[in-house]
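Listing S7. Sequence submitted for prediction.
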Amino acid sequence: MNSQFKFNPGYITGISFISALGGYLFGFDFAVIAGALPFLKEQFHFSEAQEGLTTATLALGCIVGCMIAGYFSDRFGRKKGLLLAAAVFLVSSLAMAVSNSSTHFIIARFFAGIGVGMASVLSPMYIAEVAPSHMRGRMVAINQMTIVTGIFITNLVNYSLRDHGVDAWRWMVGLGAAPSFLFLAGVLWLPESPRWLMKNKKSDRATAVLTKIGGPAYAAVTIASIQTTAPEDRKFSRAALRDKSVLPAVIVGIGLAVFQQLCGINVVFNYTANIFESIGFSQDDQLKQMVFIGLINLICTLVAMWQVDKLGRKPLMLFGAAGLTLLYIISAVLLQKHSPSASWSLLAAIGVYAMTLAPVTWVLISEIFPNKVRGMATAVAIIALWLSYALLTFSFPVLAKHLGTYTPFYMYAGICVLGFLFVKNKVIETKGKSLEEMDDIFLGH
């Protein structure tokens, strides 16, 4: 069917990439604190509580950002939501860089979290709404690629700035203003989502956007498809998410988001030093492992982008859950024996995650919700994701202290078994289906 349309792949990729710059800033703010925190502790004399709060504040801001994004994007449009996120990124980066107290820095980082939360909702959702079905998987996966690129480049920059004196942290956090400005400028060029335009009775503008994406025939077919699933009244409340026709999709989205985080891989990113110190790695070796983790993460994300529209979403999710189960058990055994070989199994786990759960979860969350509640439902799922991330990162140090570094990995293996069963029984394949076809499946049309 797609062969009859004249798609503009360069334009589609361009608008997807610009939207996905929000993912780069997501990766930046996620990673920058690891390099900045030692300097902040020295300059502001952080207590342990302030250190923990500084790290956790990003997740708290993310939850607020998700709440804002769902309402704002449904009310004012996806493009204006992305513009607001970009502006928040820019201002918060500069505010962190000029902080003169720990309180000032923590507040600024909270606002950075709002930007991350908004981008984590809006970037994949926008891409899903503009990309044709045969390109949607890899276009949404661009968002994950920019996240891991942001993490990797930020780690390299942090390492290069480590000898730049007590104010090195100001450069680390302040440099986020550069990609923030590029994101802001790029979003100004983006078209509004045609599906949002149709929902708000702006069919002429929607037709123009769709024509530029795939030609007049594609625009006509897509407009007709959108109209069959468009709500009669665009005003709805949160109660709509509990409607029996919508709730199954919401539960699946929340389940996927929670699984992506509680599967445990982010403890390897956030507690690399703790884990590798437990098996005798020196500080220099720990830093090298961070670089290797970043490289594996980036390379395997590129593989996922290549395969997600070929192999499908569900097979990749099942492979990821099964692979992580096995690798976590191996890692736990090796960590318990204090074997340096644990580094290889953990790197393999990073690779499996980067090819499967990391990008595919974002793709599925961007696809499965009905048009009429997509903004709000996506926000709810990603709030669940950030709450799960907070639980995971807060719990690991306590578990590792009392039960040993290896024990949590047995727990994560058990969670991956449950995740495998959840995906097998509850998740449907979305490869090649339009968003309107997904509406028909979930709403039972």
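Caption to Listing S7: primary sequence and predicted structure tokens for the chain studied. The chain has a mean pLDDT of 83. The longest helix spans residues 9-44.
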